[in-house]
Design brief:
The structure holds two protein chains of two kinds. Chain A is of the alpha/beta class. Chain A has nine helices and eleven strands. The N and C termini of chain A lie far apart (39 Å). The mean pLDDT of chain A is 94. By secondary structure, chain B is an all-alpha fold. Classes of the chains: A alpha/beta, B mainly alpha.
């Protein structure tokens, strides 16, 4: 079953096409990595999924519910409350973490389930403890983000997103703001999620990471999907010239 | 300057200080909260709210406080045909509140706008409504950042209270001026200057304490 379906997504900034008729679906348990050079539209695509960007046209379904669809020529989004509910079926991890600095790690993880989704406190705290253990930071529950390293911040951010019990995790270049020697601690957590068959959509610059964690890789260029397939097909037997060029430029 | 003369002035200085402090506290109590709706209004996505807030801030920051006092005390009763007529003290407080709310609104607005866009995006991705984002994520972070400029503005307020003598209220500065005119003795000026300095020193001390408490809260575990 498709957790995420995107049909004919167009996103224009002024007269510039950031996304030009992109269709993509992510099946349950699948980890899809989106690669491509800067400005290829891959981050914009991800940000359209949870309404951080509004589409110019196209249709998006999350877990079978329509986030946006076309009404004639215009995109029509779900009503505000529905929109927020549908968006919380996705868990977003940002390049720059965006943790709340005035809250402890535990509060960062629990604030949405407790104060927004109004879930049961005992359950929320139990889930949060489990998530802290999953990301290996049980001892940082009462620390503030300012007291953590970049890698630790990103792991807390992953736990915060997972606390919503999302149907799909969205990663927007999760390792790009980290020092190379600590990207592994974040990648290992994401690999753990991949092994547990967490549905994921991952935008990344890190080809080794994409190859390791993804079951499907999508290559984008100039706002279009140029090629998609299994990691070994994309990385070892690229078909299009553009992908071959891109891979050469990266591995040189 | 002699001690007896200074002691004789003291009751008047005391009364003047009380008036100064009354205006100071009344202004803070009402202007601090009143600044927030104007701050939120001036960054609102709803154009009429934005226009009203920006116009308000423009008028009250853009004209002298003394002129505003004159307007409220002398012009408003005339313009309203006697309908709006207030005593000196309420006139002073209302004018100061309206004026300082405009300054506080600008401080709040700058504080709110200094918060990284990523905080809004994170909140949105976690299902926060715009108002929940403001209340739970943005405003608590803003408080720490606006404390220094708010403290600064409050110190200005202590000194601005001297302007109320223009509508005939006897506050601290007026006591000094009267004694100078009456007795041709400058002691009054010096005493009053010392009182202002003491008040601002106290205020600086308190502000520092509050600032420290807010940053300590960020460093320590809850």
């Amino acid at each position: 079953m498709s957790i995420l379906e995107m049909h004919h997504i167009v996103k224009k900034f002024g007269s510039f096409y950031a996304l030009n008729d992109v269709s993509l679906s992510v099946e349950e348990g699948e980890a899809v990595a989106v690669i491509g050079s800067s400005g290829s539209g891959k981050s914009t695509l991800l940000r359209c999924v949870n309404h951080l960007e509004t589409v110019t046209s196209g249709q998006i379904l999350i877990d079978g519910e329509q986030l946006v669809g076309m009404e004639g020529e215009r995109p029509c989004y779900a009503k505000d409350a529905d929109l927020r509910r549908i968006c919380t079926k996705t868990g977003m991890v940002f390049q720059h973490f965006n943790l709340f600095p005035h809250m402890t790690c535990l509060e960062n993880i629990t604030v949405s389930p407790l104060k927004i989704l109004r879930q049961d406190k005992t359950e929320v705290l139990e889930t949060a403890r489990g998530l802290l253990e999953l990301v290996g930071l049980s001892n940082k529950a009462e620390s503030y983000p300012a007291q953590l390293s970049g890698g630790q911040k990103q792991r807390i951010a992953i736990a915060r997103a997972l606390a919503l019990h999302p149907k799909i995790m969205l990663f927007d270049e999760p390792t790009s703001a980290l020092d190379p020697e600590i990207t592994n601690e974040v990648i290992n957590v994401i690999l753990k999620l991949a092994r547990e068959k967490t549905t994921m959509l991952i935008v990344t610059h890190d080809m080794r990471f994409a190859r390791e964690c993804a079951s499907k890789v999508v290559y984008m260029d100039e706002g279009k999907i140029v090629e998609e397939g299994r990691p070994e097909e994309i990385f070892d037997r690229p078909k299009s010239d553009r992908l071959q060029e891109f891979l050469t430029s990266i591995y040189r | 300057m002699n001690i007896d003369y200074i002691l004789a002035l003291m009751p008047a200085v005391g009364r003047g200080t009380v008036v100064t402090l009354q205006i100071f506290f009344c202004t803070l109590i009402f202007a601090l909260p009143l600044g927030l709706p104007f701050a939120l209004g001036s960054i609102s996505k709803i154009p009429p709210l934005r226009w009203i807030s920006k116009f308000y801030i423009w008028v009250f920051r853009g004209t002298p406080l003394m002129l505003q006092l004159f307007f409220m005390f002398y012009a408003l009763p005339l313009l309203s045909g006697g309908l709006i007529r207030m005593e000196r003290f309420p006139t002073a407080v209302v004018t100061f509140v309206l004026n300082y709310a405009a300054y506080f609104a600008e401080i709040y607005r700058a504080g709110i706008e200094s918060i990284d866009r990523g905080q809004y995006e994170a909140a949105k991705s976690l299902g926060f409504s715009p108002w929940q984002t403001m209340r739970i994520v943005i405003i608590p972070q803003t408080i720490k950042r606006i404390l220094p400029p708010v403290a600064n503005e409050s110190i200005t307020l202590v000194k601005d209270t001297a302007l109320v003598y223009t509508i005939g209220l006897t506050e601290l500065l007026m006591v000094a001026k009267d004694s100078m005119n009456r007795d041709v003795d400058v002691s009054g000026y010096i005493i009053v200057a010392l009182v202002y300095l003491a008040l601002t020193a106290l205020l600086t001390f308190v502000a520092r304490k509050i600032e420290r408490r807010f940053s300590r809260h960020e460093r320590e575990s809850v």
